[in-house]
Amino acid sequence: MKKLSFISLSLLMLSGCKNLEDASVTERNTFMHFYEGANSYVATSAEITDDGYVITGTISIPGDQPTSKIIVIKTDALGKPVWQKIIDGGSANGITVSANGYIVVGDSIQLNPNSGSIPDLENYWSRLIRMDNNGSIVSDVSFARKVKTAGQDDMHVDFHADALTQDDQGNLVTLGTYKFPGANEFAYIATLNPTSLDTVWKKEYNYLERDYINTKSVYYNSGRVMWGATVSGTASNFTTSYVALPVVENNSVFVNCDYFGQLTEQSLVINDLKSAPIGYGAVGTYTGTDGKKGNIFFIRTDKLGNFQKESAHYYDGATEGIAVSDPTSSSSEDTGESLTATRDGGYVLAGTLETTPTRGNGGKDIWLIKVDAYGAPIWDKIIGGPTNEIVSSIREAADGSLVICGTIRDAAEETGGLSSIFLIRTDSQGELKN
């Protein structure tokens, strides 16, 4: 990442924040930090801890055989690094703060360049890593499986781990997907003992012949597991998708699975799901079947996992008032990536807005949208510079401030530039000041 990009972004983000450098360390409520290395850093998420933040992401290492590593960064309350841990051979999809440290979920990746089987050139295992509070690895386990095939070598089945929560017994509930070579990608739930990481129960869900793409969050409540998923399929050279809310009993089948958008042709993607006192809020992206004219999408659900379809809203960054009644109406390319429930019963949505002649700072910018409990917009803010800033997660802190994590990509990344992880803390209105 070129230092000029950092300076340009800093100046744009801090314009009007004259007191930031004058404030003492203990008085600063907002900040931004960048974390970089000799290779590209790509953010997964940041979580709030008692004494600061913990960030996870993936380091992409180019070469004749590109590889990747997991990175975990622990910071103090001002975002300054305390320690970091780099873990070989994989990618991170999420991190959870536990009583004794941190748990990372993601993938182990094995490259087999000499394999005679195309599906085996790159194999994936779901992965769970337990770390103590100082970043030392307590346990690191991966899971996949092979199946017998007639007259051929055993066939590897790819597994990915997407999200993690705990049940009422303290067991770790992991959400992920699995894929047989040449088949669709389906969802699974695996519950693990928190100490030994032995499997308590595991179920695979493959009822629809379509690909399942899971949200970043999974929830457990009263013996039931719920998550969000994008259900995707291709027909007549067009990819269409709609969203689903699967709910399953412990070690059992679906007890509910509501759908939204399944009767129309579009690409509707749900990226994040967050709990709130009145149910859940979901954010994602709506585009046409060609993947263009993207709008940020929001919808509420009740506590049982039913979409409240009247709460569906679509937001276009270049439209005055930002809310649009026709989801196909879009003047900018926008994506919804994450959201957080707020203390007033509403949400803040976080996504990207691609700069247009009338709005934006160049490239892709961070776009924050504050909405009420029903999705009506209250305010929106754009943060960014001439590079591409892509949000991975947003959280509300105890004082109402917003903690945003993501990746800043140099415009010249494809020709040698690097990407870095950013961590930004704004006030409750999305502003960087004092």
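the 2nd protein, sequnce then structure:
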Amino acid sequence: MSTQRSFSRGALGLFAAGVLVALSGCTPAPQTTPKPTPSPESSAPAPYDGPAVFVGDELDWFLPDAEEISGLLPDVGEVAAPTPSLIQVSDGGGPDPVPAICGAFAYEPSLRSIGARSVTWASSLPDGRDGWLHVLQFADEATAQALMDQYVGAAQQCAEFTYGGPSTFESTVRESDDGVRAVAGSLVIDNGFGGGNSLYRGYAAVGNVVVDFWQPFSGDAAFDSEQAAEFLRDQASDARKKLVEELTANPPEQPETPPAADPAAAWSTWEVTDRGVGPILLGSELEDAIAVVPGAKVIRPEWDGGQTRLVSPDGAASLLLWTGDGGTVVAAVSVGFANVSDEPREDPAALPAAGDVRIGDTVAEAMSAFPGGTSVRIVSSGEYFYDWTTREGAVIRFRVDRDAMDPAAVITGILTEDATLRQIPDFG
């Protein structure tokens, strides 16, 4: 019995062990957890290294705040809020300075600019006059830097000069490692007739931008030109860094080529773009531009450098072709009112439009369709504009019947221009 029981217990033990072995054979073998394969890291975009061309609201990066202006200049009162606007005097005239390069101080640089941001401030003195700072956008780097070359040259050569009478410019020039230049100083001009001006002046340039400020003063100068030049230089360098960051994150896109216009179509179907108007392209030779519009009546200018008018075959519309500085290349094309002699009165519906914006629309509609531009007032001629620009140096200018800061101002003319064809004066 005991032997049988022992056998039975042994058999049961072996059976149980066999079941466990069998069950263990059915259990999946432990799996090794695979190590995750690291995903390839997204490489950071290469820093933007193209032209340092600022456009539109990027000009705001150059603007000092009220506290900085007060720390930069003496006798600063209330500082107004910056505006996307520009007032040009454009009166010309004045004595011939000796040396000639000192004429750069009397030049109004905004006359060749295509965009601006401005800030003004009152003087804290009872009889003081306002100060101004302009951030001026030019069509390209070459234009802005050529202008700055002349300001640096004037600072070096015009410590003492003649502008009708004996005049002086006590100044400081500063340049950064990345080529940003700035000039600041006290300018005292004697016009030779018992009058003149005393101004604190400052200039800085980077890329296609020139910053220009002035503030009248009386008596002895109380201006730290070194501090001002270094501030202007550093402010411009910071703006350049912001531009590189912006264009690294959002590289500028190549402008799209508009579809070719049908020269035989009604001119009202043509579009004003940053390339031209209808089939007429900016940068074309004048005779080539005329040839692409078959059947148009051509009215030649009465003097060299004047505008050529093309009249549509049905007589309902016309265009003005503008050549730069008496040349033969079409620098601009305009429709509607242009402040020239013998202008026809045309139905706006018969004229080309800029997108959905036509002559007769309000400037508010132009600002909505073409944001980031500049409102311009020319004092000498009583003209008002809203200018919209591209990074390639093109301008679409909307002429309006009153101050463009008034959203109800009415568009009376539209012009498109290749502003890279503009020339700045050479003072010596």
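Confidence is low (pLDDT under 50) at residues 1-33. Helices lie at 2-26, 66-72, 141-157, 225-249, 286-291, 363-369.
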